[in-house]
Amino acid sequence: MITAMSKQTIVALSREPIAEKLVFQLKDQVAKFGITLHTLGSQISSALYFLERWETSAEFSAAQKEQLRAIASYFQSDLCFLSANLANITVLAMDMDSTLINIECIDEIADFTGKKSAVAQITEATMRGEIKNFEESLRRRVALLEGVSADSLEAVYRERLLPNPGAVELLAGAHQRGLYTLLVSGGFTFFTDKLRMQLGFKQSQANTLEIIDGKLTGKVIGDIVDGAAKAAYLDTACRALGCTKANAIAMGDGANDLLMMNGSGISVAYQAKPIVKEKADAAFDHVGLDAVLLLF
Known about the structure:
CATH architecture of the largest domain: 3-Layer(aba) Sandwich
Helix content: 25-40%
Oligomer: single chain
Distance between the termini: 18 Å
Strand order of the largest sheet: 9-8-7-6-10-11-12
């Protein structure tokens, strides 16, 4: 954990050149906090993104980060607050629903029963952190799927599920760099297994829906993959590789990703709920998932 007096590295990411007005406003606001920024090299451009980096004289509070991110957002840019002593990255761990992919699979399955609204309301409250017990939340939602044809899972995968912008490029870049990739989801193995094959994840973990006579029973088989389980799978993968979470990138969008993200070398909130953005090192609202490759 970085102490209050530790230095940090701030990274601005954008699909367009970093505006001079953005840099001026950031420095002006930081000065009001009594903190200084030191520019680290010139602006860098990749095939899709532009990046600028600064070193700070101290760490920012959550409220200060929020103010700086609001300034950046006005200029269609995202800000990342990284440890100045970032460890070598060895592992990439990702959530699935609304992070790697564009949908919440359980909501779309529920659409086949006419119960999408009821399920989606529970999903949204859970991801915002308003429903604290993820296992209870999941079992409530899965119970509403009783009687749905198992064919609906394939329909959701083929007709509604798409990787989020930059997902394919992120996985390709991660594997090119030799990272161990882990897809860990509170969703369902039907989808994680397919995405593991499609995108080349080294490992995937999720929940298994019970299916009898071609229909969902409204139950989950085995232990629930909740926030604690996600964190445990990441810890186990790191230990097997002889590293720690400080050597990992953890990416998510909802409250059940926070335990996995906490303590990781780089935590990334992608199109995330406010509670997740507040605690994440990087919050991506304007750039794609692959922009994380520029951070290490």
